[in-house]
Design brief:
With about 325 residues, the chain is of the alpha/beta class. The strands form two sheets. The protein has an eight-stranded mixed beta sheet, with helices on both faces. Strands 2-1-4-5 form a four-stranded antiparallel beta sheet. Helix 4 crosses helix 5, helix 5 packs across helix 7 and helix 7 runs parallel beside helix 8. The protein is globular.
Amino acid sequence: MASLLEIEALQVRFPSDGAVVRAVDGISYAVDEGETVAVVGESGCGKSVHALAITGLVPRPPAVIAGHIRFAGRDLAELPESELRRIRGPGIGMVFQEPMTSLNPLMTIGRQLTEHMRTHLGLSRRQATDRAVELLGLVGIGEPGARLAQYPHHFSGGMRQRVMIAMALACRPRLIVADEPTTALDVTIQAQILKLMKDLTRELGVALVVITHNLGLVARYADRVNVMYAGRIVERGTAADIFARPQHPYTRGLLASVPRLDRPRAERLIPIEGQPPDLSRLDDGCSYRPRCGLAVDACGRERPELEPAGGGHAAACFRPGDVAAAA
């Protein structure tokens, strides 16, 4: 049975001053119905660009997109904008990084919630309003009827993010893409928002792709994880496998830089030395080798491909066994 979302060899490139920025460099993964898949990595690795490519929100030009993005059997990469508009909302919902810049400050929350329901679902004003009240209640906003007449600045950061989730759910999509939905929120609100999204996917059967750099939240809420570096997926597997048995040195570095309750209080965090590579100057070797303590000669000659590491786990590394032993 085919997955709900199948991304195959996706590339997103931006020509710039005689060079080409390879923002997304041939990634592939799938998402099943009702599943939560996380895409993690540091800033600049291509997470957000790939999320926008899924929803057809990367402008072409300047971007050049290749590969396949199959959603419910249809290749979104080949569809015209008019067809993509019909899929956004009823098919795919999007939760953007910063709700204050995604919500229109001049429109009431009620209008922003009901506008696309009337467009995509053909609801009357009354039906859309009733649905908006239901959605605000569903995402935990008190007195939802009164809130419809308010503007975004009347809401706190966490409440605005809840509104964004309500908007993503409004047209009953089969898939939600959440691009760093907790970045601007404090720690306790981050956990609330991710728990809310996970609970809603369970109740409504919606698949969820979460783009994030918060490994703690990933460990708790994701079913499967894709680790990205320099536009490529360097490791994939279940959340349990990724955290218990990392097979790529970058994944190990990410985990080592996160505080853990099961480690001694005096133990120091280990940062990843160096800087991410320039995506317009990538060579034929492994992009992570300048920052890697396990690099060998082969790492400079070619890029390792994702290879099975047991139980659906895969890593793009020439020395996965050494990584696992050092973790």
